[in-house]
């Protein structure tokens, strides 16, 4: 098993994930026990691909994700970590900056992961600071957020409706997992969050939410993000690729960004694990691309 952090080149930043290769013989209770023991927001388990997966030979895998409390259908940061770890295994070039051993850029590594949410292609390239993985989500969708859900989550957070940004209405966004999007009207509101864990967990489970995505938008192409994740046994996620994809899809659907757009999401700042997530939207393509770096971290 490897330990990587995603969406940062600094082992002290980003969101840590365990990556378990060749996990096909593990039982689900064994996977869950390992994820709980590690305590990362998710641990990824790779296994041979299903027979119908359309992928080049040796480049396709089954990929599942377990939080400390339960399996989740899709996890972006653990996908990024898994892709970088798999590319390292294939090419021998590790996730340290400049590890290609040549002045020429390495060829991209194209991977295909069969996840519980659907098929997710990932491309790993090498940038000046190390490997960069770009995942392509399943088609993004968004749905009305029931008034009772919004009111309940605001109460659990200790937020008032007047502290929301009316230009980004509450919405349930999906790109492999469901997230409730709530936009803060100011930076101070986003910087100061605490919540009633039991109440928020009950609401999230009742509405099949993976996280609550709390955002503040200081510029047209820049968002600050926080993601409470109590249903996974984690107070807050320092980088949430699945939620980034879902948020990008929602903003496009609502006409809040152009059909072709590149967004930068900053997350984990208040947790002391700063993370940078890049989101790309392409006109006519319902999928969302999320890119980030990764770095090896010592085993706990």
Features:
300 residues, 17 strands, alpha+beta
Q: Helix proportion of residues, in percent?
A: 10-25%
Q: What is the straight-line distance between the termini?
A: 12 Å
> What's the count of strands?
17
Strand order of the largest sheet: 1-2-3-4-6-7-8-17
Describe the 3D structure.
By secondary structure, the protein is of the alpha+beta class. It is built from six helices and 17 strands. It has an eight-stranded mixed barrel. Strand 7 and strand 8 (130-136) form a beta hairpin. Helix 2 crosses helix 6 and helix 3 (147-157) packs antiparallel against helix 5. The longest helix is centred in the first third of the chain and has 16 residues, at 76-91. The termini are close together.
Gist of the model:
The chain is an alpha+beta fold. 22% of the residues lie in helices and 36% in strands.
How are the SSEs ordered, and which strands pair?
Blueprint: E1 2-6, E2 15-20, H1 28-38, E3 42-47, E4 60-66, E5 71-72, H2 76-91, E6 109-115, E7 118-127, E8 130-136, E9 141-144, H3 147-157, E10 171-174, E11 178-183, H4 187-191, H5 197-206, E12 211-219, E13 222-229, E14 234-237, H6 241-253, E15 261-267, E16 275-281, E17 288-296
Parallel strand pairs: 2-3, 4-6, 11-12, 13-15
Antiparallel strand pairs: 1-2, 1-17, 3-4, 4-5, 6-7, 7-8, 8-17, 9-10, 10-11, 12-13, 13-14, 15-16, 16-17
Helix pairs in contact: 2-6, 3-5
